[in-house]
Amino acid sequence: MTFNIHTQTVEYGNGKTATIETGKLARQADGAVVVRSGDCIILATACTTEQPKEGVDFFPLTVEYQEKFAAAGRIPGSFHRREGRASDYEVLICRLVDRAIRPMFAANFKNDTQVLMYLISNDENVAPDTLVGLAASAALTISSIPFEGPISEVRVAKINGAFVVNPTPKEADKAEMNVILAGTIDNILMVEGEAQEASESDLIEAIKVGHQTIIKQCEAQLELKEKAGKPKMEVAAPEEDEALLQRIQDFAVAKITEIATTATGKYDRKAALKQVKEDFLATISEEELETFNKALFDRYYYKVEKNAIRNSVLNNRVRLDGRKTDEIRPLFMETDVLPSPHGSALFTRGETQSLTTVTLGSKQDEQMIDKADALSYS
């Protein structure tokens, strides 16, 4: 058997390169790639249904990441022998990818879509979470799915005063600042990370350094698309009714703006906004109700309400509860609010509250976590 294999080499960061390969594994998927750096190998697949999902007003996208213990030549520990539910670490990696790719699909695309990523070979010197964004985007880019990428993700760490792109896990442990960036050729989509202390100039420099690598990785995906990309699916244009939109604006904008500029409580404001919507629906005659598109109305009304409130805050520089834009909500903190727990605290910010407790345990209470790249339990 012969395979129609296409490979693209891309700068991975930290002086290393990664290869993106398609055409050998998971050939029945709409898009599938294998990304390799060192001995770390990620398999990413993207699949979608032929028809849009009926009765939904959102994009039904599922993103999953799983680390196979066999990738490191290990057998799962006895307390999770069969690699069941995803670990917290795997869920967090899923979210990093989901947040970056979800806004990048064609408008009105409502087909069930899955993006699955697997660590199938582990390298202790390569962090797999720096490759999954590249792998997921590459699978989508070469697929028939109307993905308007590509995107990529990189980790940037400040180590001994220097910015390092995609450091090894051991290097990252020594970092003063450690952030993960997601972006396209033109823009940054997401920044997430941690630091002991970080100046604004350091964060900006980290974003600039990381974006340079992201651009190269996106360009490599476009080159792979030229070699192995499939024609994109056609997506029906969303239904529009300019007359209905204008009618909603004429009726509701002034009323919503008045509510937004009147400092009221959360529930009073919510009730007043709901009443404006109901008042508009009351203007629809019985003859119009026969052909009235409620789903389209809900979409338009949400858009009008959101824009009216946003414009009110920006123009008047006053928030909905009467605070100026440079004022924070009233804060209140209290400790030892509960008598029996080892520690407790109540934090209140405006109408939001958090009641927190802490319990001290012994060494016997330590939670054991089994990971594919761990040589022992940690």
Topology:
Layout (H helix, E strand, L loop, with lengths): L5 E8 L2 E7 L8 E7 L2 E9 L12 E7 L20 H14 L11 E9 L10 H11 L9 E8 L2 E4 L3 H4 L4 E7 L4 E8 L4 H29 L13 H19 L5 H16 L4 H4 L4 H23 L14 E5 L7 E7 L2 E7 L20
Parallel strand pairs: 5-6
Antiparallel strand pairs: 1-2, 2-3, 3-4, 4-6, 7-8, 7-9, 9-10, 11-12, 12-13
Question: What does this protein structure show overall?
Answer:
- This protein has 378 residues and is α+β, with helices and mostly antiparallel strands.
- The strands form 3 sheets. It has a 6-stranded mixed sheet with strand order 1-2-3-4-6-5. The chain has a 4-stranded antiparallel sheet with strand order 8-7-9-10, sandwiched between helices.
- The chain is globular and about 65 Å long.
- The model has no long low-confidence stretch (mean pLDDT 89).
Offer a quick outline of the entry.
With 378 residues, this protein is of the alpha+beta class. The chain is 32% helix and 25% strand. It has 2 domains: 6-228, Ribosomal Protein S5, domain 2, CATH 3.30.230; 242-316, Polyribonucleotide nucleotidyltransferase, RNA-binding domain (Arc Repressor Mutant, subunit A), CATH 1.10.10.
CATH topology assignment of the largest domain: Ribosomal Protein S5, domain 2
The figure for the number of domains is 2
Shape, principal axes of CA atoms: globular
CATH superfamily of the largest domain: GHMP Kinase, N-terminal domain
Mean pLDDT: 89
* Distance, first to last CA: 44 Å
* Radius of gyration, taken over Cα atoms and rounded to an integer in Å: 25 Å
Query: How many individual helices?
Result: 8
Per DSSP E runs of 2 or more residues, the count of β-strands stands at: 13
